[in-house]
Amino acid sequence: MVDRNVFFRDVTTKVCSSIHIDLAVNNTFEYLRRHIPLDAFKLATRDENRRAIRCIAQASADKREYYDKLIPIPADLWPIVKSRNFSEPILMNTDEIYRKIAPLAKHEESSTLMVPLATKEVTMLGALTFFAHGRKRYDAAHIELLATIARPFSMALANALARENLSHNRSSLRDDNCSLPFFQEREEIVGGDSGLRNVMEMARRVAPLNSTVLITGETGTGKELIANAIHSSSSRKAGPFIKVNCGAIPENLIDSELFGHEKGAFTGAVAEKHGKFEQANGGTIFLDEIGEMALQSQVRLLRVLQSRKVCRVGGDKLIDVDVRVITATNCDLEQMVSQHRFREDLWFRLNVFPINVPPLRQRKEDIPTLIRHFIMMKSRELGIVTPPAIAPGTIGRLVNYHWPGNVRELENLVERELICRWGEQLRFDSMSAEHACKATPTREWQPADGPLNLDEVMSMHISKVLKMTKGKIFGPHGAAELLGINYNTLRGRMRKLGLMQVKQEA
């Protein structure tokens, strides 16, 4: 067998041959095969947010290479997998838990040896797992040899996760920094002198102050634009405007997103992270969909609002933050308080200066101006040199529509019409079809063996929408948007109805 020092040197050289972890794994594979039984090996870590083993990279003899693949762990096994920590390499074939997981990774017929990876800050960063077809292919000598390469692979995995985290933070910060000028330049508030006159007057009054603002209104009414307007007219306008969609962040991630975390605070926390409150220091933080925040998270948010200090996850140091807080919701928070779904003390803190944005159907005088505004804006986006005209009689038909999706629905309709009628007059015929569909009475239906219960009907409808979206739940044209409910609410209902196995958040 090869000398251990030579083996360590050669493997370290190959691991360090590329900053891309998948290339480093593949560069090492053929060398390892010359010295140990090996048909495949994986570099993996635990993804606690998705309750899965995340395969960062894999190389195999049949050249099937994977990068960033998830292996979901059954709910009854996840607590055990999450809590297990190894400090030394171990043969996994005799492990009872591994035998249940092996079929998920499709290696149940192989000898399996796992080498745990750790750093000074993270005691269980991930693992190297080696596979060789057949039984009892690994022995004590192989374990001793492979134990020597845990350190270079640990550093490679830690660096890869740190780069990934840095890339995510840069992207997030870039989006946050770009959001204010984007809205200022391209989405001026239409209706500020008519249907939104009272709203804009209230915004102008509160903007110079540091008072907390609660913006309410239906989905798609433009609550974020009002928040932007308040920030850009305030003394904090030179500071950051940080938006947080509270409903889109899983409950177990909200603390890290809002308040940050220290290096090593949990598996995967390979670098210190500043939360949204720290990023917003000297500016404004906009907490959208505040009504979707879990009760436990509400307690921690209340503490920050009271003290104006944050404590990162995994740390004990209190950090001063100077931020203005603007929140928004389409929920009736007062009713949620009475139903014990929202904390009363937090509601008092947020409801200092409420502003209600009316739905589009209550400010129909703005619709003609909005249509022309979106035609001009979307024409520029689509590269249409001369914005098309609107066919006679069309405006009146659009004004009479009830617009359940509010301004956002109108914007999307205009863009669709511009694409479908490139270079022609805009007639919005699809709106006529929508009116017809809504006006046509549907025949009451029930199966021959009796009516379905509510869960069965809900399950059938969600499944139908998931097929329409090809399994996509979150984001534009995802199932949550089509159903008109929050992403986390939909996930909860799918879990209750046993539909999670069809989820593909592509």
Any overview of this molecule?
The chain has 506 residues and is of the alpha/beta class. It has 20 helices and 13 strands. It has four domains: 4-169, Beta-Lactamase, CATH 3.30.450.40; 209-356, P-loop containing nucleotide triphosphate hydrolases (Rossmann fold); 361-436, Orthogonal Bundle (Helicase, Ruva Protein, domain 3); 454-497. The strands form three sheets. A six-stranded antiparallel sheet has the order 3-2-1-6-5-4. Strands 8-9-12-7-13 form a five-stranded parallel sheet. Strand 2 and strand 3 (66-72) form a beta hairpin. The radius of gyration is 28 Å and the shape is elongated. The protein starts with a helix and ends in a 9-residue tail after the last helix. Residues 178-187, 435-448 and 501-506 have low confidence and may be disordered. Pfam families: AAA_lid_14, Sigma54_activat. Keywords: Activator, ATP-binding, DNA-binding, Nucleotide-binding, Transcription, Transcription regulation. It comes from Oryzomonas rubra. This is AAA family ATPase.
Radius of gyration: 28 Å
Tell me the strand order in the biggest sheet: 3-2-1-6-5-4
Largest sheet: 6 strands, antiparallel
Strand portion: 5-15%
- Total number of beta strands: 13
- Count of runs of 4 or more consecutive helical residues: 20
SSE class:
alpha/beta
In whole angstroms, how far apart are the ends?
Answer: 46 Å
Mean pLDDT: 82
- CATH fold type of the largest domain: Beta-Lactamase
For the record, what is the CATH homologous superfamily label of the largest domain?
GAF domain
So, CATH architecture of the largest domain?
A: 2-Layer Sandwich
Give the tally of structural domains: 4
- Low-pLDDT windows of residues: 178-187, 435-448, 501-506
CATH class of the largest domain: Alpha Beta
Protein name: AAA family ATPase
GO molecular function: ATP binding; DNA binding
Keywords: Activator, ATP-binding, DNA-binding, Nucleotide-binding, Transcription, Transcription regulation
Domain Sigma-54 factor interaction: 189-419
